[in-house]
Structures
1.
Amino acid sequence: MDIIETLILIGIFSVIGFVNDKTKPQEYYYENGIVTVYKKYQCPTYCDVDHFHYVYFDSILVGHGRMCIDKEKLGEKHKEDV
C-alpha cells in the first residue's frame, strides 16, 4: 500500500469518526443531573430507570408524554473520567 492510499484511508476514517461524534447521543449537565440529548428517542416522563434520561428540546418533536428540556438551561457537555 503506498502513501496516497494510506492518506485516503486516514481521511475516510477521520470523517467517519467526526460524523459519529456529531450524530450520537450527547450527555450534558442539566439542572441537578445529567441528561442524554438525542433526537431519535426520548424517555417517557414516568421513566424511573437509573440512567441519564434521553431528552430533546422540542415538545412537538418528542410527542406527548416524552421528556423534553429547556435548551437555555443546558449546561456544559459531560465528559467521562478516563
2.
Amino acid sequence: MSIRTEKVASLLQQELGAIMQKELPRNGPIITVVDVKVTADLGIARIYVSIIGSTKEQVEAMAYLREETKSIRKILSARIRHHFRRIPELEFHEDHLYERATRIEELLSSVRKSTPENGEE
C-alpha cells in the first residue's frame, strides 16, 4: 500500500469507528472496525469488522451493515467531505480474528491444565 492509501485507510477506520459507536443503534452486539483496506484508485474501501455477540447477532449485524451501507456512506461523507472529492464505495467484511484468538486461548489453557507441572507425573 502507498502512503496515501494508508492515510486514507487510517482516516476511514477512525471515522467509521466513531460512526459505529455513536450513530448506529446501540442494542445488540459490539461492532469494532478492525481494519480498512483501500484500493489503489481509492474507489473501494473494504472494512473489516469484529462482531462480539452470539452467532445470530453476528449474522444480523452483518446483514444490517450491508443493508445500511448507503446511509453509513452518507454519514461518512458528511464527516470527511473536505478530505475527498469522492467517497469510496464501502464493502463490509467480518473479521473472525477474535473468535480464533479466543479458541487458541481455550486450547492453550486446556493443555496447561492437563500437563503435569515441574515434570511430575
3.
Amino acid sequence: MKNRKGLRFALLPLAITICLYVVFYSKIETKPSDAGFWLIFALGASVGVALTRFFQWSDTKGNE
C-alpha cells in the first residue's frame, strides 16, 4: 500500500462529511437517538483526524 502523506488525503474525510452535513442539514436533530447526532459526531471526528494529519504533514514537511 502506498504511503500517502499529502493534504488531499487528510482533508478528504472532512470534505465528505461536510457535504453530507450540508445535504441533510434540514433533517438533522441533535437528540442522541437520531442519526443526525451521529453525523455531527462524525463531523467532529473528521475535523480531529484532518487536524492531526495536517500537523503530521507539516512536521514531515519541515524535516525534509
